[in-house]
Prior knowledge:
By secondary structure, the chain is of the alpha/beta class. It folds into two domains: 3-167, Alpha/beta knot; 179-247, Helicase, Ruva Protein, domain 3, CATH 1.10.8.590. The protein has helices at residues 16-28, 46-52, 56-60, 68-71, 95-103, 124-127, 147-160, 179-195, 205-218, 222-247; strands spanning 6-11, 33-37, 63-65, 77-81, 111-115, 132-134.
Amino acid sequence: MKFEDLTIILVKPQGPLNIGSVCRSMMNFGFSRLRLVDPCQEYRSLDAKKMALGAFSILEQAELFEDLPSALHDIQIAFGTTRRFGKYRKNFYTPSTAATQINALDDGISAALVMGTEDSGLETKDLELCQHFITIPTHAAYPSMNLSHSLSILVYEIAMKSDAGKKFHDPIPQQLAPGKEIEHMFAHMRKTLQDIDFLDHNNPDHILRTFRRLFGSAGLTQRDIQIIRGLMSRIDWTESQRRKNSDT
Length: 248
């Protein structure tokens, strides 16, 4: 699916601030097609423009419709967002699974994310026009989400599961150093730090345990160990030079 094949449809959005924020979320993730069904009169007000910022062009180009059937006239697959769990609505996509389904659509297939009013969401008659339903799992104590926040979650998931998201990768875990090399490093560190009187000769492990905890939390690679031992070797050399100079 190409991003231009996906349309965001807001049904009776009530606040210009939310409408502007929706535009900003859309542009953040590369979406530009917006349709508004019976929006509030202030949908292009200064408040909306302030929230949209550089994405106000999306709102300027938004298409207006009197009702949802009209807004869906050329849409082939509609995903309605809801928390209504009725008798005939038992199969719901999460944002992640919906994103997978949307990205699997062939190029040229027109799809839409349909979102309802900020206070009550989509009505049953609107949901009946959608082929699929998406719900965002939220905490039962406060399940209602801000309109633009909800959309941000949805378009983020779609973008990350698209070709555009494939250029981002989590860091590849590096191979950790074996325990034998780590213990050699600590033995070297113990000797070096004792030689410069950094460690208490009567209880050197007291401070050394702190280094063990710090390095243990970090997870040391072989390169890390080489750098630390290189530092210890440099300290060793510097200390030996200091002692030579003090003896002369």
